[in-house]
Amino acid sequence: MDQWGKSVDEAKRKEIMSSLSQVIDPDFRVDVVNLGFINHVDLDDQGQCTLNMTLTVIGCPIMGTLEEMVSDAVKEIEGVNTVQVEYCWDPAWSVARMTPYAKAMLGLS
């Protein structure tokens, strides 16, 4: 799946990613971007931002917390009026989705 919707320009993409990189997973203590949780982002002309993300496991006990944190972070961006978080479990999350930074932070490099 392409990570960015057609309506997300480069400047807005950077702003969304910067905002999401401030969302720290309370269990891993690494941000959701570097953990590889973000699959797809779209922003329509009405300010509806749709985020497609995955987590490490289905039924993750902090799913609701992370969803709220991600939504709150993106709502701070000018031009974003609402945020919808969708989950995708296929393909499943794996350590391979993590950036080298996240792997180093977790002692996996």
Could you outline the blueprint of secondary structure elements for this entry?
Layout lengths: L9 H11 L17 E6 L4 E6 L9 H13 L6 E6 L12 H6 L4
Pfam families: FeS_assembly_P (PF01883)
InterPro entries: Fe-S_Maturation_MIP18 (IPR052339), FSCA_dom_sf (IPR034904), MIP18-like (IPR002744)
Structure characterization notes:
The chain has helices at residues 10-20, 63-75, 100-105; strands at 38-43, 48-53, 82-87. It is built from three helices and three strands. Strands 1-2-3 form a three-stranded mixed beta sheet, with helices on one face. It has a single domain, classed as GMP Synthetase, Chain A, domain 3. The longest helix is centred in the middle third of the chain and has 13 residues, at 63-75. The model has no long low-confidence stretch (mean pLDDT 91). 24% of the residues are buried. It is α+β, with helices and mostly antiparallel strands and 109 residues long. A hairpin with a 4-residue loop joins strand 1 and strand 2 (48-53). Helix content is 28%, strand content 17%.
